[in-house]
Every structure is written in structure tokens, then in C-alpha cells.
């Protein structure tokens, strides 16, 4: 997303993921599949040295389990959105839409390469959300636990501690 105006941000948030559920059968199958899935390997490296699960790693973990439960994932592009559809053998589906924001072309890349990078990124993140997977080592998650936590003293006053001090 290159336009960070309040209207553009509001639009992106509102349209990031609109899911429609197809019924009890697909929900039960997805629940059973999620119960068997492990987190994909964090085998990719991001710009800020944080690791993430590549699309290949996500598929390696998910495809056999989804198939076992009669589930399949299909991706299509409609306009400026990636549409990810989870199909169940019953005919029920869950549809998720993810906005595509194509970056400006870099000198070394072709328009096709830049487009493919954006689609791969969106596909991976769409799968993370749809299947309930954790896709990266978010450095921000660890920072929360380093904040002091107020603990009551025996006399009723408060002291600050971190989780390591418990």
C-alpha cells in the first residue's frame, strides 16, 4: 500500500479480509485440520532479519492435512484482490479477499517480477489468516513481555517486575 491517507487505510482495513462461511461441515473439517497442523518452518528471512514461513513451507505443512479432511485451497485474482477459497468436499466454501498493493518497479526487476512478489506475499499471508497459522517471528511479540508488570506487595503497595523475576 503506497497511499497512507486515512481514507486509504480505512478502506484497506475494511476490505482486508471478508470471509463467508459455508456451513457446519467445512467448519468441522477446518477445525479438525487445524488440530493436526503444526506451525510451518520459519525458513525465509525478511528485510529486518526476522524470519518468516515461506509459501513452500506453509504448503508442505498444510496440504496433506487439508486433503485428509476433504479441504482444498484455490487462489484467484479479481481486480486488485487476491481471492482465496477454501473448498470442502461437501461443496461448502470459505472465501477470503486480500488487497493487492503493487509496489513501484525497481530498476533490476521486471513488472512481472514485482507483481509476482506481491502475489506471493499476499498468498502466504492469506493462508496464515485463513488457516490460523503463525507466519513469522514477530519481534514485537517479545517486547510486550519485557514490560514491567505491577505486582502487589504484602503491605498492599505495588512493585514492578518482569516475567523473569516471578
Summarize the structure.
With 166 residues, the protein is α+β, with helices and mostly antiparallel strands. Helices cover 39% and strands 21% of the residues. The protein has one domain (6-165).
Helix content: 25-40%
What fraction of the residues are assigned to beta strands by DSSP?
Answer: 15-25%
User: What characterizes the major β-sheet?
Assistant: 3 strands, antiparallel
Number of helices: 5
Count of domain modules: 1
Low-pLDDT runs of 5+ residues are: 16-20, 139-150, 157-166
What's the end-to-end separation, in Å? Answer: 42 Å
Q: Can you write the helix and strand succession as a string? A: HHEEHEEEHHEE
Outline: globular
Say how many strands there are. 7
Content-based structural category: alpha+beta
What's the arrangement of strands in the largest beta sheet? Answer: 3-4-5
Query: Kindly state the mean pLDDT as a whole number?
Result: 75
Gyration radius (Cα, Å) is: 20 Å
Overview of this protein structure:
The chain is of the alpha+beta class and 166 residues long. It has five helices and seven strands. The strands form three sheets. A three-stranded antiparallel β-sheet has the order 3-4-5. A two-stranded antiparallel sheet has the order 1-2. Helix 2 (24-36) packs across helix 3.
Task: List its traits.
166 residues; alpha+beta; two-stranded antiparallel sheet; 5 helices
Topology:
Elements: H1 6-15, H2 24-36, E1 44-45, E2 51-52, H3 55-68, E3 71-78, E4 81-88, E5 93-99, H4 111-131, H5 139-144, E6 149-152, E7 158-161
Helix pairs in contact: 2-3
